């Protein structure tokens, strides 16, 4: 199981996107766990127990160069979710972002 930390503000759109992403992951037999957390708590979480992949929502990408990146572990794997993916609530495209970050680009069949 791959652990993913998604740094964003939790709202209805995030919940829908995660639901669709997990449906797509299940159809592709990809075992992932996605934890949604806000920026402030995400920093502490990254330092304590880095996940396999950290995702930043489009609105959080600006923290990467400022506050967050200064405390990130050297080996942290980070992807920023494209605003079109987030805005369209496309679970399949979100899974593509996750697969890219995990180095699994070629294994997803997208059923």
Structure write-up:
This protein is an alpha/beta fold and 111 residues long. It has one domain: 3-Layer(aba) Sandwich (Rossmann fold), CATH 3.40.50.2300. The protein has five helices and four strands, in the order E-H-E-H-E-H-E-H-H. The protein has helices at 12-27, 39-48, 62-68, 83-88, 91-102; strands at residues 2-7, 32-37, 53-56, 78-80. The protein has a four-stranded parallel beta sheet with strand order 2-1-3-4. Helix 3 (62-68) links the parallel strand 3 and strand 4 (78-80). Helix 1 (12-27) crosses helix 5. It is globular, with a radius of gyration of 13 Å. The two termini are 20 Å apart.
List strands and helices in order, with pairings.
Blueprint (H helix, E strand, L loop, with lengths): L1 E6 L4 H16 L4 E6 L1 H10 L4 E4 L5 H7 L9 E3 L2 H6 L2 H12 L9
Parallel strand pairs: 1-2, 1-3, 3-4
Helix pairs in contact: 1-5
* Biggest sheet descriptor: 4 strands, parallel
Number of strands: 4
Name given to the CATH homologous superfamily: Response regulator
Determine the fraction of residues in helical runs and give it as a percent range: 40-55%
End-to-end separation: 20 Å
Our count of helices gives: 5
Question: How many domains make up the 3D coordinates?
Answer: 1
- Can you write the helix and strand succession as a string? EHEHEHEHH
CATH class descriptor: Alpha Beta
**What value does the average pLDDT take?**
85
As for the CATH topology, it is Rossmann fold
